[in-house]
Design brief:
The chain is α+β, with helices and mostly antiparallel strands. 46% of the residues lie in helices and 10% in strands. It has three domains: 79 residues, no CATH class; 226 residues, Orthogonal Bundle (Hypothetical protein af1432), CATH 1.10.3210; 69 residues, no CATH class. The chain has 14 helices and nine strands. The strands form two sheets. It has a five-stranded antiparallel β-sheet, with helices on one face.
Amino acid sequence: MGKLIRRAVEADLPMHEPLCFPIYDENERLLLRQGFVITIPGFVERLLQRGCYIGSVDHPSEILGRSSESKQQEGGGAEQVLGGENFYPEKPRTPVFLRTADLTISVRRIHKLLQEVPSDRVVLQDFVRDCARKLLGLIAEDRDAVLASAYLTHDVRDSRVNQQLLGAVVAALLAPQCELSEDQQLSLICAAFTRDVALHSIDKSYATACKLPDTALVIVREHPVAAVKLLLRHGVNDRDWLTYVVEHHERLDGGGYPHGKKGDAIHSASLLLGLADAYAGMVLANLRRPGIFPANALKEIYLGKGSQHQEKQVIFLLTTLTRFPAGTLVLLVNGEIGVVKHSPSSQSQPQVYSLYDLNGILRSSPVIRDSAQSEFEISGCVTPEKCKSAELVIRRLWQ
């Protein structure tokens, strides 16, 4: 059952951004729902002066049916903060697809905070863990929507943040099969969110470079160590988290970096993070190179099993994502372009919705196609960059 996690600080209440968690008063009355956007000047200061607390996403007042009396109590708490102004109307819960996309805002904030001088206003370790719990909650609601959103709502101009998110999603999906404890799973997702925080100088200076100079390659090889130093400077003391970050580019055959560890000397969760990172890095485009299709990325990773990646982890990856993971854009035999909404297993046909008709005209609403029928069989894949005009239609599909 849910609970109050801790007292909120200023960093937990960003202006003009969706809240990562619901906010409660000291009596556990709901003040602000998860996803609410604060726009009223001075409101954050008044909330903090009053005293408010972050609640878990499955807090009782979030998941139990609320009576009209409890709704009045919630509204009353918010009205007390604003001096009588009722500012929070009831609204439908934001779809998982969009809430996952909003997580990029949180990941971007994490990286920005790590680049700055540590501040007493932010307990970074707690903030990152809150984001990790939110991701786990979203996956529990609709794993296909989470995977599709992390893959499709991608901006090549800010690919680092998207790569961190997709890697975290893949790691979270595989972690239970790899027999990690709940604490280890949480640390793994935190590591996934922060694994490349030391590469921002490379992204800024060589965003479009086809080849990196030797000085940049040195930074790349040392970025796991540099990331750990940044995390330590900001008070992160989770040993597992730090271990996974520093080892996520180590490989079974000793060909990885920064320390060239080999075999059992590498934590299995670090190898899992490296596997998730490899997949995300392959399928997402950036300004230097295009992404490759998920099926091709999985094939390339499979060829590295036993030498770069643990064989059982690779098998888990293939059976979990399948050849056509949710969100994959596909070309059908009849010439239509569709998107995979659900891929139940490697033995079953994926659930496909047509986005463009056979003349290449975008549909106003997706149309389901039976990919087991010959005319609707999948004949190939399409990159997300070629289907940008379908973004709104795709979002509608996961609502």
